[in-house]
Amino acid sequence: MNIKSLKDWSVQDSVDLYGIEQWGAGNFAISEDGKATVSIPSSQGDIHVALPEIVKAAQERGHALPLLLRIENLLDSRIKLINESFREAIQETGYQGHYNGVYPIKVNQQKAVIEEIKRYGKNYSLGLEAGSKAELMICLANLDEGGLLICNGYKDREFIDLGLWAVKLGYRCFFVVESPSELPLIFERSQALGIKPFIGLRIKVSAKVGGLWTETSGDRSSFGLSTAQLTATVDELRREGMLDCLQLLHCHLGSQIPDIREIRAGVREASRFYTDLATEGVPLHYLDLGGGLAVDYIGNQSTHSHSRNYQLSEYCRCLTSTIKETLDQKKIPHPIIITESGRATVAHTSILLFDILDVMRYEPQNLPECLPESSHPLVVRQYQIHCEAKQVDLVEGYNEALSHRDQIRHLFRDGKINLRERATAENLFLAIAQELRERLDQSRQLPPELLELQQSLADIYYGNFSVFQSLPDTWAIGQIFPVMPIHRLQEAPTRQASISDLTCDCDGKLDHFILADGEHPTLPLHPFKPGEEYILGVFLMGAYQETMGDLHNLFGDTNVISVRINEDSSFDVTREQSGDTISEVLAILEYNPSTFQDNFRSKIEKAVKLGKINVAERQMLLSRFNHCLNDHTYFNTNNLN
Ligand code: PLP
Prior knowledge:
It is a single chain. With 641 residues, the protein is an alpha/beta fold. Strands 4, 13, 14, 15, 16, 17, 20, 21, 22 and 23 form a ten-stranded mixed sheet that branches. It has an eight-stranded parallel sheet with strand order 5-6-7-8-9-10-11-12, with helices on one face. Strands 1-2-3 form a three-stranded antiparallel sheet. Helix 4 packs across helix 5 (111-121), helix 7 (157-169) crosses helix 8 (183-193) and helix 13 packs parallel to helix 15. It is globular and about 100 Å long. The chain starts with 10 loop residues before the first helix and ends in a 12-residue tail after the last helix. Pyridoxal-5'-phosphate (PLP) binds at residues 104, 107, 129, 152, 252, 255-256, 290-293, 340-344.
């Protein structure tokens, strides 16, 4: 990619380069002075708040980077957008039922997120979905009477009892039966407690969807009833005199479904199930179509697994019109539509912010003016290519230099070349590669042999974060999140880099980036200036990342703050959560911090006895050790001072 020269660079170039207008969905922009901003609509037009200002406010409150930032307004606006879009679609298509959204809490169960969903979601009677007993308990504590509660997943006796009591308390709590074996326990507990359940049946639709979660749909999907099981279960409910409990039909085609045509096919099939069950006299009122509403992480509106080829309004119209058309054929009353949109609700609200600690550059150092006479002929030949690098044929010059470099490494292994000669030869190779790359930047077409040259010379920027803790999907499923610097955006980003995290793991890296012109293995970044903070943001990462993260290398939770942006462009820090300390992380692994301290104390006491350290040194060491236990797990730049 050609980067304009430093003096011609403008903020608009950064907007165009990083693709913020494509993936940002209007929520992010860049200010005149080159800072990434979060944009919130207000009665006076859009309000823009600079992310570096929010970072500063967090740091002043003692929350160092890395920092997980939640913008509450963005969560609210997503809830509003989804609900208003369904309202409009219902009006436009003449749908006779209404929409009742449900938030599947597995997507982000953090208290701050759930409480904001509860507070703002009240405007739209937003319900919750639980997939386990622990999640059910969060839902029960947060929903109000009359609230819609969908219980998916395996349900033991305690789960069922809690759900039945919830019905008695006035919640619309549905047990979604995923397998025929669940029914007997529901009958038994219902009889024992004298509470009639609300029952939903999850069906397997045969229509398959693309994307990363294609296995969620189709005959071999893990969850849901086959058609034969479905009809048998309906018959059983009828026999038991409990058909009136069966009010909901459920299906979940998959998460992040990129293609609207596949959604339409799945919804049509689910609607056909609904129609025929209703025709048989099953008193259904709700059609729950699960999750799947995709987020356009790469902003190109395509059927790529990280994108989607539809807008939210089209998704809503697709659901309402497909259900309507299918049910109208048999004059079935239109049900309440439920969707369980997880990522589309919470992805936009969170940004991971981290600082760069260091950079590795693949550049020659101390190139020799001339070579010693005793130099090996291969090193001499490498020197000649270096001198001719401006004229040699690009591919030929590169291939020859690469082959010399590899032969020189062999010779070193065989003891035929010494360390200094190898260093000189490798420096020369880097110099040649750099020269050729500069020529590549000016040529229009990249010869295929040289595709990897850019990548092999890219810098490595070391970031103060853990992929495994904060962005596990980038490692586990190759998820791409938009990444860009949050300041210096009025300057040309003249370096190309991949990003390495703090873990000692080669998988702990970001090397797949989205820019306006597509996917790239490197990200354009600004030259790192030691001693100056350089902060990158990972956007759209509010879904699935937090609870799925792990403690690899014992990097724990980062600091977290939530902010609310006000109409006057000020912002309030509404919640603060300090990241894990080292002793908290150790306690998770069953190390008792006080035993730990005692063990260390007795070791250094022994060292005093043996005369290895004096008592003053012992005291200093002990206090450092204790201080460290209470420190956070990430790189603490204050330790440098
Ligand atoms: N509902 C169910 C049953 C799910 O399994 C999932 C996730 O896979 C969701 C809803 C959320 O899906 P999404 O995040 O795509 O909206």
